[in-house]
Amino acid sequence: MADIHLPVTLPSLYADLPRRLDVDASTVDEAITRLDQQWPGLRDRLCEPGPALRRHINVYVDRERAGLDTAIDARSRVDVIAAISGG
Amino acid sequence: MSTKMVLLVGTRKGCFILESDQDRSDWKIRGPYCDGWPIYNTTYDEAGGTIYASAASEWHGAGVWRSADLGETWDLSSEGLSYSDDGELKLSKVAGLTAAHGRLLAGAEAAGVFESTDGGANWTLLSTLDGLNGRDDWNNPANQPPGHLGIPAIVPHPDDRDRYFAIVQGFGAFETTDNGGSWMPRNSGLRADWPREYDDVGFCVHKLVMSPDRSRMYQQNHCGMHRSDDGGQSWTEITDGLPSDFGFAAAAHPHDRDSFYVIPLDPAHSRCMPDGHASVWRTSDAGSTWRRLDKGLPTQNAHLGVLREGMDIDALDTPGLYFGTSTGQVFVSADEGESWDEVASYLPGIASVQVLQVA
Questions:
Q1: Does the pLDDT at position A87 exceed 70?
Q2: A85, B35, B131, B213: most buried by Cβ count inside 10 Å?
Q3: A49, closest residue in chain B (CA to CA)
């Protein structure tokens, strides 16, 4: 399962959402869908209509900048970053 | 009946709550709440006892926070707070927020009005003000200032659920009497110091307030302070006697239709109180004359700004007046503005202040 790392701004919004968790998915988009199934509303915190990642949400798969359609597998590390956005 | 006064203070870094008894002299501060998200406005559903706060995070989008226990616990929902995937409009924030007639109304950026009938859990788009003169212009990003709010305020009618005003930032006030099915511009008689494409649209309404008899309204505009005696259908400028024709915040006296409060600001870059002299101004004769209220306020080197939702007034027999500054101070008057106390000094920049009277 992919190793997902979430930004510090997310866990406080949902009961029992950890910073780091394992998700079984084949794309970034599918991983976010899986998270949203367990923590309803989480998708809206990361994505906007389109769908697309929000402007200041950056995702990296194995240290490479990724999009919603980027493939992931059981060995992937997925970092979701709340990008620098003002003071 | 013992009454507690609760002040909801929306800031750039979350919502704070100040509490006092009816004397309004000793205030305790709690917060920050809402996870430190930027708060644009608050509202209170008295029937359900629930606080709501409109918010937008640069990272995680827009939503409405709610608390059913006066701020002890909060949750966030944005379910339904979005436009269609066709890309014509994109929702960046929720600004205007009001609870009335058993439901919530929210004003969004880009400009649209949303409704929730289940206590803020789910939202439905009511209107994007289609077909109005100026709509293409206010939805054009090239015309929007930094921090564009879209619809920063919705003003409900106390007696009619389907009737309310929406302010479209930089373009004017619009009234619906059929719950957003159609809209009428309510800008007749207003002044604008710039060219306009349409007679009835293109006026920069900052704040709209209703006096107790409904037909008397006041507004703080980018260009002057104005009064209406016909429920907003026409406006008369009442700026004479004030140190500036610019400001954001305004409050109508809850028991006296002729009394109205404003906080004039320097209209240029500073947008602070003129000459570093903090003051609230009151008219008691519907705008014929104005009086400066500054007892207890800092009168030197006080370069304070107050935003459009930054002032409120309570409805006690001797009403209390409240304002919060864009540099984090909160001032309270328990005597209709005659004297003031600074009750918070170091909050984040304040966008909104709302007072509640809670049993």
A1: no
A2: B35
A3: B85
pTM for this model (two decimals): 0.95
What is the ipTM for the molecules in this complex? 0.90
DSSP-assigned letter for residue B145: P
SS3 A35: helix
The DSSP element (H or E) to which A43 belongs, if any, is helix A42-46
Q: For position B196, what pLDDT does the model report? A: 93
* Residue of B59, B79, B85 with shortest CB distance to A41: B79
- Are A48 and B76 a contacting pair at CB < 8 A? no
CB contact under 8 A, B76 and A86: no
Q: Amino acid letter at B213?
A: D
Chain B closest CA to A81's CA: distance in Å?
9
Integer Cα distance of B177 and B96 in angstroms: 18
Predicted local distance difference test score (pLDDT) of residue B147: 87
Q: Do B35 and A9 count as a contact with CB atoms less than 8 A apart?
A: yes
Question: Is A54 in Cβ contact with B84 (below 8 Å)?
Answer: no
Cβ-based contacts under 8 A for chains A and B: 48
Q: Is A8 on the interface with B (CB under 8 A)?
A: no
> What is the DSSP secondary-structure string of B4-60?
EEEEEEEETTEEEEEEEETT----EEEEEEGGG--EEEEEEETTTTEEEEEEEETTT
B83 contacts A49? CB cut-off 8 A: yes
CA atoms of B90 and B82, how far apart (whole Å)? 7
Confidence label for A85 from pLDDT (cuts 50, 70 and 90): low
Note whether B83 contacts A: Cβ–Cβ < 8 A: yes
Residues B124 and B114: their CA atoms lie apart, in Å, by 5
For residue B144, the model assigns a pLDDT of: 85
Mean pLDDT over B306-334 rounds to 98
- Tell me the average pLDDT across A42-46: 96
Q: Report, in angstroms and rounded to the nearest whole number, the Rg of chain B calculated over CA atoms.
A: 19
* Residues near B222 by beta carbon (within 8 Å), at least 6 away in sequence: B192, B203, B204, B205, B206, B246, B267
Residue contact A50–B77, C-beta within 8 A: no
pLDDT surpasses 90 at B20: yes
